[in-house]
Amino acid sequence: MFTTAKFTLALTALAVATPALSEEVNLYSYRQPELLKPLTDAFTAETGIAVNVAYLEKGMVERLQAEGARSPADLIFTVDISRLYAAVNAGLTQPVTSDTLKANVPDIYHDPEGHWWGLTTRARIVYASKDRVADGEVTTYEDLADPKWKDRICTRSGTNAYNVALTSAAIHHHGVEGATAWLEGMKANLARKPQGNDRAQVKAIWAGECDIAIGNTYYMGQMLADEEQKEWAESVNIVFPTFENGGTHVNISGVAMTKAAPNKDNALKMMEFLTSPEAQEIYANANFEYPIAPGTESAPLVQSWGSFEADTVNLMDLARLRDDALKLTEIVDFDG
Ligand code: FE
Question: What is the average per-residue pLDDT within 14-20?
Fold first, then answer.
């Protein structure tokens, strides 16, 4: 009894000294609640810091610009290096670093200056018809421009952020001229005009409209979890192509600290928490992505798709090529 009373007293004293949840951190997120919620809950449980999230569908950069120094946002969450880079480029972020972040995030997945940090990766791969594409028929991204695929490839718009990043990687590996020839070759092989999202391409393979498609890895997991789309998923194999002189193209989901962050210390704690191996696996598994901290593993389903060597280009280099890639896509009239 005495011990309990003493303990209660001590707790009361603590509560007075630090009012409950006066500590907070504010997030703007393009990532969905079901992905972030388990992590923000775990973070609050561990640290006592409350997490407020504004889930946005668009206009994050514009909102941060409009709010300026009065913005409540501490951290921004998004997918695709181009979106992180856009916030950095607009002067809306601040550089952050720490031993924990550096230990947990490989160099190629964070800004050398610390403005953005990757949290998970996804590979941009080939979905190949189980019936109409043999093992080993496609092994490189360059293969996609081979005339043997004439009228057999499906893809979403060339101006979509995922494809722009892939084209940026093609420029990185082959220069503008090489990437132009590659895009033209691929366009000549399209079974139909670019349209729809990544999953729509797999559906088209299932329906017999094309034999191979470009898409992100995690959509396989999403399709398998969907009653209607399961059949589409089961009609294809995943192939991890590489660049002839590189690896498999990957992109990231990531985080950046805003320039105006009012809760800087808490924001850094949250970033470090998210790069911890434990949080990494929760975050990655929630959307069939790959965790990036050393010693972490992807979900068994994701592992079943096979392993690959990721391209070693720093994503910042791809971000810088974004405008060139977009221009090139328009010049070859990829979607036309
Ligand atoms: Fe996506």
Answer: 45
